[in-house]
Amino acid sequence: MTTNHRSPEYYYEQIKKNESISSVQPIDLKLFSDIHKMLVNDDDLKGKQIATVIVYGDNGRKAVAVYPQISSRARLNICSDKRLNLKDFHLFLTNPRILGDIKPTGVKSRLRDEWKTLIVALVIVFISLAIFWFVSAESAKLYNEFRLNSQQFPLVQDTIDFYQTIGQSLLTIITLFLSVFILFTTAQNSSIVNDLNLYKTGNFHQYIRDDKYIIFISVCVLLLVFFGLGFSSVPQSFEVLSTNILINKINLWIPLLYSLAFGGLTIILVSLNYFFKRIIVARESNLVQQIISQQISSEIEKSHH
Description:
Elements: H1 8-16, H2 29-40, E1 52-56, E2 62-67, E3 71-79, H3 86-90, E4 97-100, H4 107-148, H5 154-192, H6 196-201, H7 203-233, E5 240-242, E6 245-247, H8 249-270, H9 272-304
Parallel strand pairs: 1-4
Antiparallel strand pairs: 1-2, 2-3, 5-6
Helix pairs in contact: 1-2, 4-5, 4-8, 5-7, 5-8, 7-8
């Protein structure tokens, strides 16, 4: 990252004089902090909103600061090696106005937001495993004999058919969901991309991240189902002898793959609630703007009469 090495005094004077800042090179957060502290400590600027910061682009590592109550021409481009967040600015901004891509991201924030759903998904995984183990316990013991003479062990074939039916059903559900989801997001994103309120609050970026998260989970489920179907179709047993207990694809690998797929499917189905919330927030954002515009127009008309 190439940043500007001018002194904070230079920017301070340019902003106060309402001069255009000529350099297009970005500044780092430390320099922006020094500039802001000088502006805050200026007695002539007491009571004014010093800066509005808009975080955008490059996964939230860029920002632009404007000073509408001080200078109409000053623009400070800020760049960071890591994602910018509210804490970075709260350290030195008094009464900050931070807009744009400001919502937290990462595994921690996702776990914090989705912990209830993840617990439900884990419960579904364990319940599915228990059911699959119960169904396949006897078939797993007979699988090697079944490979030599399949006609004498119809129970094993029934278990394999059961797994293939489960896999095909999961495959149908997840492909249908992905198709509908892609159509939904395409239609929805075309309307929210121009919504200024959603951008300012960070909801626009959050929606895009949520879409990527759901698609990632869907693809993982799809891969798990493909592997499960593959294991159920090939003749190899993939067995492991562990403490005198025979473990093979019938009582471990296929149940594990399908149980994880059911867990992922649970997360996906719970996300349907997210669709409705997203529609409401997006529609409300537009409706609120319309109401405000109508109120302002009405007041203007009254003042003219």
